[in-house]
Amino acid sequence: MAVFSTHNPFVFAFGILGNIASFVVFLAPVPTFVRIYKKKSTEGFQSFPYAVALFSAMIWLYYAWLKSDAFLLITINSAGCFIETIYITLFIAYAPKQARIFTLRILLLLNLGGFCLVLLLSHYLAKGSSRVRILGWVCVVFSVSVFAAPLSIMRVVIRTKSVEFMPFYLSFFLTLSAITWLFYGLLLKDYYIAVPNVLGFLFGVCQMILYVIYKNLKTVVEEPKLPETNKDNEILSTCGVEEAVSSELNGHENGENMKEQQEEYNGNKDMRGSNGDQLIGCQA
């Protein structure tokens, strides 16, 4: 496997930029886990987005190993696997029994069972270049489904006319990540990397437009009824891939100063858990 794509310096340049942008997205949930560590409790946060982000990084890492010139995909997704594993470990350490059992089941079914299934099927049912193509389509399908996740949080922003659950810097780096991996895939002529990031770019731009529209609007909070289905739907996809994004939104602790509206606080807390985990799956 060629370590770097020296035949085209632009491929290397966009790969480096994609690594940087995706790494920032992977680190977005840090405030959430600092909070969990300090309080020794996972509160209303969920583990599903992190398990999905880990699975995404694993799939793209396997795909990169089968390629001949995708070293920069290997670096970012290796980092993603490591970071997401730390997040999940901390979650399991401080989660209540029921949440801990649920997390372990997800890890066994998705990250272990699902990945092993993909590994075995791709190994025994396909050979050579056909194996790369089949795995590439698996990555594309998974990435597209993950990139569609921001639709839920965009709907919340429109309904509440508030960008509290959609920090601009997170949307910006997700969009930047999609752009860099899009050009990386095009220059490398790897459309399995490029295609999902077209959708990631479009959704990223839409999020930033919504931010500009609603950032200065002040709304009166009156027990917003946020649908439960929004919880954990935001899973970031970065790197020309997807990713489970980051619980940076969870870092916002504005709700703690609103004791007189405890019910609303609890609802907002759950929403933060889902937003921050926009599936970040650095594919490429």
UniProtKB/TrEMBL annotation:
Q: Which residues form a coiled coil?
A: none
Q: Which residue stretches does the UniProt record annotate as biased composition, category Basic and acidic residues?
A: 250-272
**Which cellular compartments is it found in?**
Cell membrane
Transmembrane ranges? Answer: 12-36, 48-65, 71-94, 106-126, 132-153, 165-187, 193-214
- Name of this chain's protein: Bidirectional sugar transporter SWEET
Keywords attached to this Swiss-Prot or TrEMBL record, sorted alphabetically, are: Cell membrane, Membrane, Repeat, Sugar transport, Transmembrane, Transmembrane helix, Transport
Q: Name one GO biological process term.
A: carbohydrate transport
Chief localisation class: membrane
Disordered: annotated segments: 248-284
Topological relation to the membrane, as annotated: Multi-pass membrane protein
Q: Name one Pfam family in it.
A: MtN3_slv
Q: Name one GO cellular component term.
A: membrane
**UniProt record similarity statement:** Belongs to the SWEET sugar transporter family.
- Gene Ontology molecular functions: sucrose transmembrane transporter activity; sugar transmembrane transporter activity
User: Which species is this UniProt entry from?
Assistant: Manihot esculenta
Q: Which PANTHER family match?
A: BIDIRECTIONAL SUGAR TRANSPORTER SWEET11 (PTHR10791:SF22), RAG1-ACTIVATING PROTEIN 1 (PTHR10791)
Q: What does this protein do?
A: Mediates both low-affinity uptake and efflux of sugar across the membrane.
Q: Which InterPro entries match?
A: SWEET, SWEET_rpt
Task: Look up keyword Repeat and say if it applies.
Answer: yes
